[in-house]
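REQUEST FORM: STRUCTURE PREDICTION
Request ID: SP-0412
Submitted by: Lab K.M.
Chain count: 1
Length (residues): 278
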Amino acid sequence: MMPKLLTIAYYQQDIAWEDPERNYRMVEEAFATQGRGVDMMVVPETFNTGFSDNMAALAEPQEGATLAFARQMAARHDALFVGSWTVKIETEGVVNRLHWVYPDGSYGYYDKGHTFRMSSEASQLLRGRDRRLFEWRGWKIKPAVCYDLRFPKWLRNGVPDEERHKLPGNGVERPSEEVRLDYDLLLVCANWPGSRHEAWSTLLKARAIENLCYVVGVNRAGVDGVGIPYTGNSAAVDYKGMELSHCHAEQAEVGMAVLDYEGLQRFRKHWPFYLDFD
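STATUS: Completed
RESULT:
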């Protein structure tokens, strides 16, 4: 079997404050060349407005303008488009919803599980209750949004029930064939301020090491509408915690990463730490 490679373009965006149309143009231009031949395009959390105190007021219906834009991008580049924006759920309230949009226009979503209590997000938005996974071109992927990154139990990888028959019995050190864990890649879209950039970079590596997976963290750059600076520090990290690629601090740019499924599986087979997961 040929190795499965996944090519990801991730945009460290200097988000225009509460200006969706300008942000659409910005994203469109960023991926105009960098989006060629990729499998996935990823943008930061609330890429259309920024992490504003007006997130609830700026929320769209599910089938709104930002989903339409995401569909256009996915179809144009024949790639998955991933990013979050706030969505109004009829009579229930507003959520910070990460979407993955396929080239054919279909999509899935995950609602941010940990709304940030040190901002107005926690008082304005509903907290998501469901952990979700999705698949794309042979990869199993787990979505997360910003503050979720601080909660390892929420993001914990594991062996699904249908794979457990492959696990070795007593006295056998390693599985005799490939065992697929719940996910191969953790995707994190964020608006993580520069004052805590060291925590961001450290946690990306920690989640990769402990979950035996790749991690791609996509953060914004620039200064937001209330004066909070963001250094970005967007990066792709492998299952050993080694950085594969990164964006330069404090500037808007597109980072690129090629993930190797075969290398991941070789590492998991040689070092099956998951057999001793708590």
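NOTES: The chain has six helices and 14 strands.
Reviewed by: T.R.
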